[in-house]
Amino acid sequence: MMKSNKKENAISKIDIPIKNFLKNRTSRRDFLKWVGFSTASVTLAACKGPVIKSIPYVVKPEVITPGIPTYYASTMIDPFDIGSVLVKTREGRPIKIEPNLTSNYLNTTSARIQSSLLSLYDEKRLKNPFIKENKCSWHQIDNYVISHLEKISELKKDIVIFSSSYPSFSTKKLIQDFTRTYPTTKWITYDAISYSKALDAAAEIFGFRGFPLFDLSKTELIVSFDADFLGDWSPENMSNSYTRNKNPKKSMIQHIQIESNMSLSGANADIRISKKPSDIEKMLFEVYQKLVLQKETNSEMVKKITDLIQKKGSKSVVLADGSKEAYIFSFLINQKIHSQALQKNKFFLSKESDDDKLKNFIKNLEKEKVGALLIHNTNPVYSLPSSLSHEIKKFLRKIPVTISFSMKKDETNELMDVLAPIPHWLESWGDTHPVTGIYTLIQPTIQCIFNTRQFQDSLMIWGKNPEKNYYEYLKNIWEKEIIPKSNVSSFQEALFHGVVEKEENIIRKNNVLSKEKYSISRDEKNKLDKNFELRLYTKTSLGDGHQYDNPWLQELPDPITRTTWENYLTISYDDAKKIGVRNWYTGIGAMNGHCVDLIKDQKILIADIPVYIQPGQAIGSIGLSFGYGQKIGKFSQMIKGKNAYVLYENFHLIQKNIQIKKVNKIHKFACIQLQNTTEGRNIVKETDLETFLKHSKEIWNEPEEKAPIWNGLFGKEKDNKKGHHFHLSIDLNACIGCGACIIACHSENNVPIVGKEEIRKSRDMHWLRVDRYYSEKENSKDEFFKNPKVSFQPVMCQHCENAPCETVCPVGATSHGEQGQNMMAYNRCVGTRYCANNCPYKVRRFNWFNYANNKKFDFHMNNDLGRMVLNPDIVVRSRGVMEKCSLCIQRTQSVIGIAKKENRNIKDEEFETACSVSCPTKAITFGDVNDKDSHILEKIKDQRNYKLLEFLGIRPNVSYQLKIRNLK
Q1: CA 504 remoteness from chain centre
Q2: Which phi and psi angles does 76 have, rounded to 5°?
Q3: Which helix (H) or strand (E) holds 88?
Q4: Which residue of 365, 466, 555, 793 is 20 to 30 Å from 752, comparing CA positions?
Q5: Residue 714 pLDDT more than 80?
Q6: What is the pTM of this model?
Q7: pLDDT > 90 in the chain, percent
Q8: Rounded distance, CA 637 to CA 549, Å?
Q9: How far is Cα 384 from Cα 410, in angstroms, rounded to an integer?
Q10: Does an H or E element contain 891, and which?
């Protein structure tokens, strides 16, 4: 009470006007003190300086040292993604996600895995539990649920736990314990994007229901039939092993992609063949017949592909997507050729989709056999195909008790009785068993921000488990069943590494497979040739749409179309011409396009969907991405995306007999890049493997003649041999365009989100962009649109030694550091934008607004919770300031400072930028060129090395390795 009075007295004293104090007799010192205070206050108010309230630790936690980051090994898992990660925290709050290279699997961080950090600080998260829309306590929830579960168990009705794939060893044990208390419990696994067809095919061919693990590092030939293996085809991103054999040599990998949509894999292929889905499956069947059944074919293309596969033998691999039969054909071909890529005793266990069990569950709903439904972290009302979604909505209200375990409100939990909010994975304990013989741990990196409780803790309480909490349960199970047989000696050691290995044998079923079963002729003609075949796909940014409310992902440009904030129907140039739809550019430099209705059986499936004319799209096919069109959430009104799940009938990615009708509606696209070609400029250098191996550098990497103007201004070039001198190199042969580097840069450098309207005005704030160019070798416009070759080129500030931006800045806000970085003094910048005009790479970004604390930009920087993600080492830039890549100067200086304090030399691998750390293919290399043993020096000395726009003579400190295609 005394403390409270003192506090109130202190506050009231501050609130008394200064003139009241001046009425009393004061000393000269007091007078100057108060005048100085008032002057400072007015000055701050005029500059709109933020009020920062600092609360010191009463008792400082041992693991936290202010200003020093702490890293935790953990596992990111949500209904679609999984990865072994390191979580960087500052003063007890996570601010960055990086890959955990201790793990041999799942050790890359995609754009979605990194962006999941921002979902932790989502102000729209559920903050308390609810019963029938009334806020309540957890004690009330427990009493309510236990009483209902006991009654349902007595009535012998099903208690269904309905969740996405959750490969948790301890959770499975916990559900077994829960089932002993409630014997009618059933666990139904449902993934929004189903892996069931692949798993069923694997069970039939390999005798084990797991997704086969492929290692492409020693492969010399990949033939992919519509499998976007550099995207989301496999539970793990395969880009890492794919690029290990991309170094130019005789045995360099050759990649042939047969597909309808232009995918990430197709864009990186050496040879891409554009065909509609039905033709792809027919072609795969003929390849299977020729290789496995030794049946002849009339197709010249099939003969060439089969000859290539037979020539490479076990060093080749065939991948396929689509129907169960497509997977079976590819698996049988790989068995026949004894493909080294197919790992015999390794399977992904992170996906457990089962379409048959799901359909059986919906039948049980109709028969009213389900007494309780516990939905964990999935949204079936939104993501089920149209027919099944209507069914589940109809019966959801009839179930006696329904419980939703989710982080935020969605279409499903709006219809449920109990909302039991769960914490974010960064606030949780847990484990996963994602790969044969691999176990990982999840540990909290921050205390629960809201009044949430883990799904497992709720099951323990309701199932009357004797353990105190889920942490104790998890620890005991690991110490009894995993640690003794693993490569670590204690639970603490397992937590430190985040991943352990354990010997594990796969129990296979002996299936007697009849080859004749799959030898049915498929030559019958498609009666629906006049209509379109729709290929559904996932975007690199949103995936299945679980992170729909994440602004980082919404503003991440699609690698192929370069659009943001929406989905659209992709269509070929020829088909667009036939139905009279087109895209065009407006006066402000933005793109608009026509809209259409999607129709099947004279019924409109999706109305007013925008059309994007995509080069390389197969004639007769169209494409649409999942993840958009959610009706509940922060961005549900802002984004007019379309829900592709309504078309996902029978969980098949290919839907036939689709018609298109043009409507009188114009759509405004938000594109980052509208220039699709290099217009003949030698920007992205590339050659073919044969030319590279047979000819000298002067033929395929001809140096450009430099302009002499800079030497005249600056005199002799500096040697920069003293101290550190930083350089960054990008291997265009390894860059697949995935965009992981863009999100890493956002997270590290507090890059703001600007929204769709600003993107349309070319006011994006990305410090790093990944340009996508189509080849220009085709003679005509028609040929260009049919099947162009694609190149990706990441571009950031090139940190020129003779930087054109530095010479024109009137206030010296940008200057060159001794370590090779082009520096920005933000408090000096007055926003003339002369530097941006003079930059030949167009990599400087101007703050047209204050993006923080601005209601117009209602993203994560506009609320206290969202701002918790900001990196304290980087200032938040204000309106009127120019900003750009700094080669992560805060990271390099931190490494130098630590080494100096420890009185030791710096190791080469210690120098990293945010983009180089997070690049899954290691296409980006950063380091000190003055270190003679550095990896970056090797890259610079490589014959493939060149610099962008080198002829200007501005000596950039960023270089590129020329791209090489294996065409033979």
Answers
A1: 30
A2: -85, 125
A3: strand 82-90
A4: 793
A5: no
A6: 0.89
A7: 63
A8: 11
A9: 14
A10: helix 889-901
Q: Is the pLDDT of residue 954 over 60?
A: yes
DSSP state of 99: E
DSSP code, position 243:
G
Q: How far apart are CA 198 and CA 347, in angstroms?
A: 12
3-state secondary structure of 750: coil
Q: How far apart are the first and last CA of the chain?
A: 84
Token pair recorded at residue 674:
């509208």
- Is there a contact between 90 and 872 (Cβ–Cβ < 8 Å)? yes
pLDDT tens per residue, range 475-487: 999 999 999 998 8
- pLDDT of amino acid 129: 93
Question: Crossing angle, helix 196-206 and helix 355-366, to 10 degrees?
Answer: 120
Q: Which residues contact 657 (CB under 8 A, 6 or more apart)?
A: 528, 531, 600, 601
Round to whole Å and give the CA distance between 374 and 402: 6
DSSP state of 480: I
494-508 per-position pLDDT tens digit? 999 999 998 888 777
Give the strand order in the sheet containing 958-961: 924-928, 726-731, 958-961, 945-946
Looking up tokens 């990008």 gives: 730
Torsion of CA 224, 229, 231, 237, to 10 degrees: -170
Half-sphere exposure of 909 (CA within 13 A, CB side): 2
Closest-CA residue to 649 (of 307, 264, 391, 284):
391
The average confidence (pLDDT) of the chain is 86
Q: What is the mean pLDDT of residues 743-767?
A: 92
The reported pLDDT for the residue numbered 37 is 41
Q: Which of 43-52, 200-209, 637-646 has the lowest mean pLDDT?
A: 43-52
The span from the CA of 742 to the CA of 747, in Å, is: 9
Residue 346 contacts residue 202 (beta carbons within 8 Å)? no
Q: What pLDDT score does 60 carry?
A: 60
Tokens 């829309």 sit on residue? 133
Give CA–CA dist 251/254, Å, rounded.
9
Which three-class secondary structure state does DSSP give residue 500? strand
Residue in this structure with the two tokens 């103007």, named with its chain if needed: 709
pLDDT tens-digit map of 239-297: 989 998 888 888 899 999 999 999 999 999 999 999 999 999 999 999 999 999 888 88
Tokens of 4: 């409270």
- CA distances to 249, 308, 607, 775 from 687, rounded to whole Å, are 13, 22, 44, 12
Residue among 179, 187, 191, 182 at smallest CA distance from 162: 187
Q: Which residue has the tokens 């925290």?
A: 89
Any residues with CB less than 8 A from the CB of 735 and at least 6 apart, and which? 770, 792, 793, 794, 919, 921, 923, 924
